[in-house]
Amino acid sequence: MTVVPRLVLSAPSSGHGKNALAIGLLAALAERGVDVAGFKLGPDHVDAAYLGLASGRPGRVIDPRLVGVDRLAPLVAHGAAGAGLAVVQGSMGLYDSVGGRPEQESTAAAAAALRSPVVLVVDVAAMGQSVAALVHGFRSYDEQLWLGGVILNRVASSRHEAMLREALDDVGVPVYGALRRHDLPAVLPSRRHGVAPVVDGSADAVRAVRRLGEAVAATVDLERLLGLARSAPPLPASAWSPEEALGAFTAPADRPLVALAGGPGGSFSHPETAELLRAAGAEVVTVDPLRDEALPVGTRALVVGGALPEAYAEQLSANRRLCIAVAELARTGRPVIAEGAGLLWLARELDGLPMCGVLDAVGVSRDGLVAGYREATAQTDSVVAAHGTVLVGHKAHRAVLTPRAGQRPAWSWDGGAPEGFVWRNVHASQLTLHWAGHPATAARLVAAAAADPAAEVVPAESGEVPV
């Protein structure tokens, strides 16, 4: 049992402002000296990154499909260790589930697993007394839900606010704040930039978070919200530990250096990736694929996480020296794991731009977004998983690769052709995994990094790699 003051922020549906409000709430409390931690429910790296920027500690993704329901509370306890408040930003509407399993995967289900009060953010721009019926319905739909109160967004006037508060008072629902229509400005960098503004330490991103914090501080009763968060009972779990997650794995005698793609503000991987690699015995150093012209001296493995934005193809291509270094690392049999756009970076080219050339494949950007969970089966032994291992990952990409898979595919799943590439000690796929859900990947990678690559290399297959 772990004591963590906490709140879950949700909404009736997407578009009510819960993302900006969650970021602003963390920023406002951090400015007041409260140690805060932010979590995103669902596979959204971008929201998690801005929650981390606002809180001053890594923002974390907690996703029941990717890590398992039983790991939600331990991961929150781990990520919020020592914090005075943990804020969990929900996904979509309170009772929604992309996978059609709301009893396990909705924000309401996660709040129940975390024994956390829920604060509902409601856009009331076109609503009057009906807000009471709406909120009452959400509260009574699930008797196990702990609806602690609401925050009203896009209130038109003082008169409008008084009307809304009176209606909600009649059904016994506390109001913790009321923001006017322009109080939460659209200041965050475009989502096409993904997590890059946070990873790069962009001044625009920092200013945007500060503005949201100022807006929330001026309109939300922070002390009452803290009181609600502190009323949550202890989390029903001990904190997740990367060392315990690795089990009986024995770290190598030396500490192989693993380069993790990222920047001064974090990496393109989940924070647990670096934590697991260090627990497995690796030294983890960040390499910026957009700016660094060489891998860190002594690099024996490379991990490119799934949050690398596709929109940065020109910058990735222009960094020719690093592309050559990555190709050489792969050619010599050192382990490389590339997820999401990392696979495109390893390809021969993307939209006509030369990339690393590790894989004989060509990427082309398209308008439609491919997104969703996949229950994937490993098609071959690799640094990620043993052949036949079944894992759940998430895809979110616009670019498609030709061919879709190499002669040794990474994955297969129902309803789709084999996907991804396994070549020598390279594992590249547009499927992104959460390593907390499969910590054995860290152990496999570190073991491969510590080994003699000449003994580990799988023979090259004709036509697969042009380097």
From TrEMBL:
CobB/CobQ-like glutamine amidotransferase domain segment(s): 275-435
E.C. no: 6.3.5.11, 6.3.5.9
InterPro entries, A to Z: CbiA/CobB_synth, Class_I_gatase-like, CobQ/CobB/MinD/ParA_Nub-bd_dom, GATase_3, P-loop_NTPase
GO MF annotation list: cobyrinic acid a,c-diamide synthase activity; hydrogenobyrinic acid a,c-diamide synthase (glutamine-hydrolysing) activity
Residue intervals of the CobQ/CobB/MinD/ParA nucleotide binding domain: 10-183
Cofactor: Mg(2+)
Entry keywords, A to Z: ATP-binding, Glutamine amidotransferase, Ligase, Magnesium, Nucleotide-binding
UniProt keyword Secreted present: no
Keyword Nucleotide-binding: yes
PANTHER family per record: COBYRINATE A,C-DIAMIDE SYNTHASE (PTHR43873)
Name assigned to this protein: Cobyrinic acid a,c-diamide synthase
The organism of origin for this protein: Micromonospora luteifusca
